[in-house]
């Protein structure tokens, strides 16, 4: 099934319909998505990382969990399949897809599904409308980066430690950075230190070779510090340039993900940014417009993402967070895909 989840689009599969061996599975998915090819002309991919994604869904055998969700990022112009991160946007479509495929029984009006994010081990609680026991994608909820409206999907996550190094700020390559993970590993940077005002388009930033190289140098050092090892071939951590808000939000962002600049923002990226800027001493905390309560508007090239994130500091000094987000999803196509015969 092809679904839009949040501001991404991906192919959703029942796990039993794919090969169990990772090598065989990845080979098949590359042929289905049309990679490697910048245009992905011979497959389902949309020639951009945001539209070259796969969700693999199954019933869970874990106590207290209903559904397991494995996210795979499919390379566009490279034959890569990565499970190094999860995707909070495609997560929005996991509950509806599980109901559509008979992996979970819906309730008469609204259905709640406990979903384990296999990539990270986090647990998401997802609630969405199922009037008369059928998924309803129509509704009045609007999210920036997606035209029109659709049914609102509520996603709750929480409980993880936020700072992989234990510090609100670190020094990397001559820059003060904050390394934070609230479901997505991100690095927070001051945009003005890189000659970025914060209102540039994604295309403009992608065209600055020196900027891309400077951000990538920091990312390669940050990865091991965040427990990710060598991230040269990985798509995490995501790199965020922060600047003061311009449109009534809490902070303005431009995100390298990492080679391309995000045209909007991912769910878990927004949750990580919103958590980070609430920690005293973190990058962005001094320029953010933080009120007493959330949600916190995370400004991005496509609009504003309302991130409802609350941070807490334990007696041992550890910062944790709980977050709730509103997403939408839409079923686009349900049918049979024919992979090309060989890479």
Automatic annotation (TrEMBL):
GO molecular function, one term: isomerase activity
InterPro entries per UniProt: PrpF-like
Swiss-Prot/TrEMBL keywords: Isomerase
Gene3D superfamilies tied to this protein: Diaminopimelate Epimerase, Chain A, domain 1 (3.10.310.10)
Keyword Iron-sulfur: no
Family from the record: Belongs to the PrpF family.
PANTHER family: ACONITATE ISOMERASE-RELATED (PTHR43709), ISOMERASE YBHH-RELATED (PTHR43709:SF3)
Protein's name according to its UniProt entry: 4-oxalomesaconate tautomerase
